[in-house]
User: Fold this.
Amino acid sequence: SQTIHQWPATLVQPVGSPLSLECTVEGTSNPNLYWYRQAAGRGLQLLFYSVGIGQISSEVPQNLSASRPQDRQFILSSKKLLLSDSGFYLCAWSADSEEKLFFGSGTQLSVL
Amino acid sequence: SQQGEEDPQALSIQEGENATMNCSYKTSINNLQWYRQNSGRGLVHLILIRSNEREKHSGRLRVTLDTSKKSSSLLITASRAADTASYFCATPTSNTGKLIFGQGTTLQVKP
Assistant:
């Protein structure tokens, strides 16, 4: 069966520090991978998605970047965090576009 | 841009009652999906209804889709305290297929 791992669960970082969130998927090959951000009590904002190794599409201009160094690994990064980067970050995968997503457990990021 | 929007934003009911949440969307879709999120957790897929379907059931869940009105509803029958969560509808964008989520409905079921 397929599983998705996302870590860490919580993270407190000072403004200006770097960020690296990692997500890995097991039990499937060539998944579509997604990073979403959720502000408190709000819906999900799609940040990045990837249909293959090295193929990254960015949805919104921001302080963040994403990479897919391996088929089932998706990394969200920042060189210098801003206060506005705080939020709940969710990684997800799907077998194909338009089909259902499987989400990780999320990372609560607080930038202070 | 927001594709799906849920209504109401918040709903509070007693255990045993039915809960109905609505979702409206803007463009043509191939399918519409409903997800559930417990506080501080990831989203869990509940049900997917395709554009050629009008109604779909899964346990105590019933989803309807009206493509002429660009709307969908999620009905939870005989609600339980464990149903307390946020519920989101999601639709794929027309040109890329990426899922866009609404703002969600927060459901509280009181024991």
Chain B has one domain: 4-110. Chain B has a mean pLDDT of 92.
